[in-house]
Amino acid sequence: MSAVPSAQVDVATAAVPLARVTRGDLVESVHLGHLVVLAPDGSVRLALGDPDVTIWPRSSLKPLQAVAMLRHGLDVDGADLALVCASHSGEPGHLDVVRGLLAGAGLSADALQNTPDRPLDPDAAWAWRADGHPAASLTQNCSGKHAGMLATCVAAGWPTGSYLDPGHPLQRAARDAVVDLTGVPVEHATVDGCGAPLLSTTLTGLARAFGTLAAAGAGAAGEGATPEARVARAMAGHPWHVGGTGRDATAFMTAVPGLVAKDGADGVYAAGLLDGGAVAFKVLDGSDRPRPAVLGAALVVAGVDPGAVADAAATPVLGHGRPVGDVRAVFA
To answer: pTM of the prediction?
Structure first.
């Protein structure tokens, strides 16, 4: 068979099965994609599909963007920094932190320029609507990142009104951090769902960055901690603020001490371990359904105790409200 012309190479090229969905005694569906598991020394422990495929990392990029913010004057830690890295569910505790981030910079929610939306959490969305509120930038899942961006601009003396412009000093700093942490040049750029610039990378580069972040979090704490270490400790120490109630990133970071994990839209996931090992994958069809099973199996390959992630990885398939099958990684 002839090689695929370079102009036709896309994320589907070289994709392989990552997870199978069983119902009863039949395989009902198969999710294809690409995956890489890196050892602490950066060598490849497992590669499925094309680990160097170029992807849009979507919200998995947020911890890297947060490093850029810390490098340029943002001075928050703990739950506040975790929210900067988050795709939060819009629960009241999340919104309180976003408001606090903005207030600390002398700003209000009116300064946010991310796309208005209602909370991801169904109960929070129902309550927000019941109180008569329309979709808002505050309740959109990326408002923590945008609040962090605005606070960074205030700290650095940069204009806030144009903070989403790709040529803004903030966005140039974010691009530099992405290249630095992934070790991969940015070849493509576009606009993410929230309105912020989105930069391409590879799965291997994304995994490398998360391994670096997580390993930095294992170092000495206190004054003088690097931006990478501060991001890792904030996320690992405040997993609910990174996601929310019932969210898989929150469940995995709660189950595995020191784990830094971040989901991204359209089937992207990245995670790093304290020893520097890391995982990144892209589900070809963009589905969220296989993500917990694939992440759990990949973390086991990376050296995590299977029992520690079993509950977080479990993805039952229901029939009339009862489990009649499951979603299982092909390499489990």
So the answer is: 0.96
